[in-house]
């Protein structure tokens, strides 16, 4: 069971409102402001549902959620960690996107980058989405240190667990062009996780992992340089720089609709 829960995010904030990462509490409103206007109950497809945190967020607010991920038994373990008496509907847990209904909202947080062939997913999103429906998604920006390392490790033949590796590497404009090519309009696109904080964190963390193998005490000492106080300082610098470095920010926050 420990392996099954190695990516346990049940105690994290849902991506609808933000994320706690790089020792920084990031909060955004791009998704929450739109989600708050959904009629109840709306049909929601949580694709790449993982720990079910977004599934629970919407179910607790009176929506009908279908949760899709690679392993239903794993989702059931995560489901046991939530109080479903607070939800109006129990989620449907499945490995496939249902073909017998349409959805008012599809969420795909931190998942599309793990898919080797986007033809396997994006046309299915388009088909499953209702006429007035939306897609909320988050995807990484290839213009970061971490994504450069991920791409290099993949090219060198590193073996990853199923669903773990990043397989799509795109800039913000390339993500927009990709979604448009599959029949979507970009309704909103914001960038999150500042360039200075993101790249500083991963340069220190990845360096410390190397040191862990050679001199563990040095690796532990290095991680002091990404403590919350220091990272908040980098976050403040990112905010002062404003939009100047936004094209180098770590993550894309995107809302899609079917092209008219």
**From the 3D coordinates, which CATH architecture would you assign?**
3-Layer(aba) Sandwich
The CATH topology name reads Rossmann fold
Order of helices and strands: EEHEHEHEEHEHHEHHHE
Low-pLDDT segments: none
- Total beta strand runs: 9
* Class based on secondary structure composition and strand pairing: alpha/beta
Going across the biggest sheet, name each strand in turn: 5-4-3-6-7-9-8
Q: Would you mind describing this structure in some detail?
A:
- By secondary structure, this protein is an alpha/beta fold.
- Helices cover about 35% and strands about 20% of the residues.
- The chain has helices at about 30-35, 55-60, 70-80, 120-130, 145-155, 170-180, 195-215, 215-220, 230-240; strands spanning about 20, 25, 45, 65-70, 90-95, 105-110, 130-140, 185-190, 250-260.
- It has a seven-stranded mixed sheet, with helices on both faces.
- It is globular and about 55 Å long.
